Amino acid sequence: MKKVFSLMFVALIALSLSGCSEPGSKGWCESMKDKPKADWSSNDAATFTKHCVLGNYVE
């Protein structure tokens, strides 16, 4: 039973860390670099160019 709760806790932490990146932040830029370009929306591409390529990170 403890293993189940531990696994659920780890999964919750992982999800919370991966989903909290604001578009244009350094974390978001890093996750977008790992995401296949075919899965990007046009807004993702524009935000990536504006913030990640040009270095205007959101703080």
UniProtKB/TrEMBL annotation:
The keyword Signal applies. It comes from the Bacteria. Residues 1-21 form the signal peptide. Keywords: Signal. Pfam families: DUF3012 (PF11216). This is DUF3012 domain-containing protein. It comes from Mariprofundus micogutta.
